[in-house]
Design a protein that fits this description.
The chain is mainly α. It has one domain. Helices cover 74% and strands 0% of the residues. It has nine helices and no strands. Keywords: Membrane, Transmembrane, Transmembrane helix. Its main location: membrane. It is found in: Membrane. It is a multi-pass membrane protein.
């Protein structure tokens, strides 16, 4: 019970919820597309069971990710991936990735589509959430992962449209989320077992690497976004 009173627990929970909102926006689209052909009386069941299956699968994946992060150099690789994900968040692809999501008129077919699609799309979420959970350390890891994901379910499923509108109106939310991923990348990388032989990852060093990661994502994201219009459609607003 003491772990739920620890400040680092609630900081990590907040990070997980923000990560899920920013990186899990596609989940609501996938759910809608997968259930669009179901009869009205089965749609709610399809949404609930499909989402539950996807969340359970994601918890399992994050459990393995937390275990793998103990292997030397994997935190460094994960940090690099998070930097790339953060930059990609600031410079999103123009093309939609949902054209291949097929709807089903059968409940089990829709549930299976949701779970499989979420598995394919969850790599970025899993890496980012595992990094946030790992930063809390000790016994906090899996409880806060499960708690954070459970809290984020209604936000993703029912509040996604509101979140999308808020991000459209206040772009700084996306920038802050991208910098959060950079922060997690920095604080995670500095604790890689391979670096333990060279220095002790003190709190000051973690903060320094976290700030450096956040600023790196911001700088590269702005740079790429500034150069992108030259190759993009001139009619596309930036």
């Amino acid at each position: 019970m003491e772990q739920f009173m620890a400040p680092e627990f609630w900081v990590a929970v907040g990070q997980i919820i923000m990560i899920d909102i920013l990186l899990g926006g596609d989940n609501a689209v996938v759910i809608a597309l997968a259930c669009r052909k179901l009869p009205p009386d089965l749609r709610t069941k399809g949404i609930l069971w499909g989402t539950a299956g996807a969340i359970i699968l994601r918890v399992i994946l994050i459990f393995f990710a937390l275990t793998l992060l103990k292997i030397p150099y994997l935190k460094l690789v994960g940090g690099i991936l998070l930097i790339w994900i953060g930059i990609k968040l600031m410079v999103p692809d123009d093309e939609g990735g949902h054209a291949n999501i097929a709807g089903s008129d059968r409940l089990w077919g829709a549930i299976k589509t949701i779970i499989i699609a979420d598995l394919v799309m969850s790599v970025d979420n899993v890496i980012a959430i595992a990094g946030a959970a790992e930063a809390a350390g000790g016994e906090h890891q899996m409880p806060l992962v499960i708690f954070g994901l459970l809290v984020s379910i209604p936000i993703i499923v029912w509040g996604s449209q509101l979140v999308i509108k808020l991000m459209d109106r206040f772009p700084f939310i996306i920038t802050a989320g991208a910098m959060l991923l950079g922060w997690i990348a920095g604080t995670m990388s500095v604790t890689d077992p391979a670096l333990a032989r060279f220095f002790e990852p003190t709190d000051t060093l973690k903060y320094a690497f976290g700030i450096g990661g956040a600023l790196l994502v911001l700088a590269l994201g702005k740079l790429i976004a500034a150069r992108r219009p030259a190759s993009a459609d001139p009619a596309t607003p930036v």
